[in-house]
Amino acid sequence: MFVISNFLNSLAIVIHILLNLYMWVLIARAVLSWVNPDPYNPIVRFLYGVTDPLLYRVQRILPLQFGGIDLTPMVIIIAIIFLDSFLVRTLQQLAMQF
To answer: Which has more confidence, 67 or 61?
Structure first.
């Protein structure tokens, strides 16, 4: 049973790292939107390519643009924090039970 426990704990750690990494990429994308970035810059293209699919899906469901300010990244960051708090802790507690 220790194998399942170690697997669940490792899965929780990987999910935690990926969620935090995506949150920082989303923050970098939001900060980048305040300036006029070069659309041909590889970093800008990477940030847009990674964040655009999720941003567009959330924008279709919740149109959160008020006066030129897009609040969609904030909603996604709150969802990431919720997933990190709920999912990662649940996996870690399941790992301790095995």
So the answer is: 61
